[in-house]
Amino acid sequence: MIAHSAKTTRQDGLVGPAPVSSDTEAMVRRASRPLRIAVGIASAGRPSILLETVNYLAGLPDQPQRLIVCVPGIDDAAGLADRLDVEIIIGSRGLTSQRNSIIRASAADTDVLIFLDDDFIPAATFLSRMAAVFSAKSDVAIATGEVLADGILDGGLDMSKALQVLHSAGEGSERVSDVYNAYGCNMAVRLAPVLEHALAFDEQLPLYGWLEDVDFSRSIAHYGRSVRVEGAYGVHLGVRSGRQPGRRLGYSQVANPVHLIRKGTMSKGRAIAQIGRNILANASGIVLNDHLVDRWGRLNGNLLALTDLLAGRVSPSRILEFGNPPSRAPWPPIATKRR
After folding, report:
1. How far is 88 from 83, CA to CA, in rounded Å?
2. Measured between alpha carbons, how far is 216 from 199 in angstroms, rounded to an integer?
3. Domain segments of the chain: what residues?
């Protein structure tokens, strides 16, 4: 059940179901009008970060017709409930489930839905750059911007650093190039093929939804191009709080690629390479005494997933059964609950 905040507003003339018609006149009208853009943010357990990002977005010169925030509980959106420029909806916890709730909420009156992480800081021209690409190139189904700095790689960034990076960036090129998948922290999606073909984020990828961006990108790629838009700048803060524990993520680093192989949205070679890189990164991180992330927990999860794979019971949803182990031993506990 989706619960809309009572304090919701939309610009005049932008509300109401989009007409569904195949006649030429209706198609011309839709092609000639400006695209209706919505921004969707799924968040959980990080109200202060979410509030900071929404405040930043509200001050940009480029504004979407709708800004939709999906949280599992109203406390996750503290400070936003009384805002007239934000729509708050309540959805089941989990990135994929919350993003599906945003799709349903925006379906009636949105052409392009831009998913942003709650810690992704777009440049002032990000929305207009994306809108221009979708307007000019009808074959584009999904697009991702140019990430100038990513805190996931180096322990996290703060807002002041993000603004410094954005302010020092030039205009950038306007080149559009094909990519295998969009990056989940910023994904612009044309909703027409999503609705026509009943596409959705895979809710079998629970919680943080590791590789949900690859899975969704490859699903929609059957109906249009997946591209990277240079000059559509942004900075991903990569804030650590609210992310799933190391052991859970480590398990997902193996189980989720296996799941995508079975679905056909990731090739076996690419998935094996992905799994290998993850395990190598976690093992080398332990050797190099990397304190930025829980390498012991991740490696524990990696090895537990490999054990389950050999036993024929590996599943992305298994992470719901456990958290981090109390010890730093990298090998999975002997007494492991089985489904």
Report:
1. 9
2. 8
3. 3-236, 246-321
- Assigned CATH for 3-236: 3.90.550.10
Pairwise CA distance, residues 314 & 175, whole Å = 41
Residues whose CB falls within 8 Å of the CB of residue 130, separated by 6 or more in sequence, listed in order: 37, 112, 114, 143, 145, 188, 229, 232
194 vs 238: which has the higher pLDDT: 194
pTM of the prediction? Answer: 0.85
Q: Across residues 163-187, what is the average pLDDT? A: 92
Kindly report the CA angle at 44 between 42 and 46, in degrees rounded to 5?
110
H or E element that contains 252: helix 246-263
DSSP string, 278-326: HHHHHHHHHHTT--SS-HHHHHHHHHHHHHHHHHT---GGGGGG----S
State residue 152 phi and psi, 5-degree precision.
-60, -30
Distance CA 239, CA 45 (A): 12
Exposure on the CB side of residue 293, measured as CA atoms within 13 A: 27
Whole-angstrom distance, CA of residue 196 vs CA of residue 174:
30
Q: Which one, of 126, 124, 99, 118, lies nearest residue 37 by Cα?
A: 126
Which two tokens mark 165? 């990076």
Confidence of residue 327 (pLDDT cuts 50, 70, 90): very low
CB atoms inside a 10 Å sphere around CB 327: 10
